[in-house]
Amino acid sequence: VSDEDSDQTLVTFQxxxxxxxxxxxxxxxxxxxxxxxxxxxxxxxxxxHQLFVNAFREGEITGVSAT
Length: 67
Known about the structure:
Blueprint: H1 15-23, H2 27-57
């Protein structure tokens, strides 16, 4: 366990053990959730990138030039 030799006192349990116990028998459900999150995040990222490109092309980002 990667945090077993940690001196911190904020978290008083092994996080890997806690995660493993929550996911026990639910790995497929977890994978589905992660995939769904990733697809949603990709959509947001594409929209944000398009907003950036449009603003850049219109000169709305001061202090940054194409050259």
